[in-house]
Specification:
The chain is mainly β. The chain is 0% helix and 43% strand.
């Protein structure tokens, strides 16, 4: 349809799984809905910094969620 119509909009690739305020900053776990890879995203107000890194499990491997290919959402 139009240039910015809702029908043309793709679903967001990254979704927030959880977040927590820590002091003057915050940390979130984001999931890539195409690959299932989990990332830790940290940001603070003092340094103005922003970090992103893959989330590792107890075995040292990257945490990957099973995803529904048609919806881009985690299967529970």
């Amino acid at each position: 349809m139009g240039l910015f119509s809702k029908e043309d909009k793709k679903p967001d690739r990254f979704r927030e799984k959880c977040s927590q305020l820590i002091g003057l900053g915050a940390m979130s776990v984001m999931v890539d809905t195409e690959t299932g890879v989990n990332y830790i995203v940290g940001y603070g107000t003092m340094e103005g910094g922003f970090t992103i890194t893959p989330l590792l499990g107890p075995d040292g491997k990257v945490v990957v969620d099973e995803i529904a290919e048609n919806l881009g959402e985690k299967i529970y």
